[in-house]
Design goal:
The protein is an alpha+beta fold. The protein has helices at 15-22, 139-143, 168-172, 190-200, 205-208, 210-216, 226-231, and strands at 26-31, 37-38, 53-58, 62-70, 84-91, 96-101, 114-121, 128-134, 161-164, 186-188, 242-245, 249-259, 268-282, 285-296, 304-313.
């Protein structure tokens, strides 16, 4: 799940509401003069205009007032949540809140249904957003962290076929149009992009400024550096099905072809697959060209195409 989604900006007036959510409390303002409940947060009562408001905890019992189902993400960061059930719910205190419905199939949703609050944890800082679900749903499961940390996963499967460096026929037999299975996936979050920007010196706003990128970037948000995505190929475990033996040195000789056809949005997961494109026996050693394609999960178009040249020397 993307962790570069825009978060609400707490103001002096609304800060108690957001802080309450962190503690799994739903706080709503009430006028001390006329006892009117109100939401959204403000400085005065819209009923009697008194500037005498208090924040009070409520249970969160609610009724579904209205909803719509959206199937096209407004930003790339929300692609993992499609379809979204956007709703207006009416709390038992009479105020209405814009929110999302979670844990509900489309056939379970109907106007007037009773709902309960979900304090969904959305990042490692403890921030939570208010969602709602049906009374029969497991709230604890829905409140579990929606973010995750990627760990490299070793590829599994049958033992690779060993091919000796001096077996010219065996090496040529590795050349194929067929790509390997997909590797493990790697999360490309904003923290990783920022770290690469600092290391490389490439701090262009399209990579490092989420707010400006949401407004000005053609991609609707920040994207990873192409070079970063290329480097991350080293973290992907590919089950190529073979192992070269009988060499003393293996050298990354470079790339015959390197392209970045599609962006990698911050918060996306990537994985890769590969095939042996060519094998050439030369005086300085045996040169194997491995065509690597890196994709955003679920995307048909690759984000990186890299014809990686590996030089084996006896």
């Amino acid at each position: 799940m993307s962790n570069n989604k825009p978060m609400p900006l707490a103001t002096e007036i609304s800060a108690p509401f957001w802080e309450g959510l962190k503690a799994r409390n739903l706080l709503v303002q009430q006028c001390n003069a006329c006892e009117q409940w109100l939401f959204y947060p403000r400085r005065h009562c819209p009923a009697c205009l008194a500037h005498d408001l208090s924040w009070r905890a409520v249970e969160g019992g609610a009724t579904l007032y209205s909803y719509t189902v959206t199937r096209i993400a407004t930003l790339p960061d929300f692609a993992d949540e499609m379809p979204q059930k956007l709703a207006v719910v009416e709390l038992d205190q009479g105020v209405r809140i814009n929110t999302n419905l979670v844990g509900l199939g489309e056939d379970e949703i109907h106007i007037g249904m009773r709902l309960q609050p979900v304090f969904a944890e959305v990042d490692a800082k403890g921030n939570r957003l208010l969602r709602f679900t049906g009374l029969d749903k497991d709230v604890a499961a829905l409140e579990a962290p929606a973010f995750e940390v990627s760990e490299p996963v070793a590829a599994s499967g049958p033992a690779p076929v060993q091919v000796a460096l001096d077996d010219a026929e065996g090496l040529q037999a590795l050349v194929s149009e067929q790509f390997s299975d997909w590797s493990n996936s790697v999360l490309v979050d904003q923290a990783l992009i920022d770290a690469f920007a600092q290391l490389s010196g490439d701090d262009y706003w399209i990579h490092t400024d989420p707010q400006k990128a949401r407004l000005s970037s053609p991609f609707g948000g920040t994207i990873a550096h192409g070079a970063l995505v290329q480097v991350l190929q080293s973290r992907m475990k590919l089950a190529l099905g073979f192992e070269i033996t009988g060499y003393s040195t293996q050298i990354n000789y470079g790339s015959d072809r390197l392209r970045f056809p599609a962006p990698v949005p911050a918060g996306a997961r990537i994985h890769a697959r590969a095939r042996v494109k060519a094998v050439q026996v030369q005086a300085r050693g045996t040169q194997l060209t491995l065509e690597l394609h890196t994709h955003v999960l679920g995307q048909e178009r690759p984000s990186v195409i890299n014809d990686l040249v590996i030089l084996y020397q006896a």
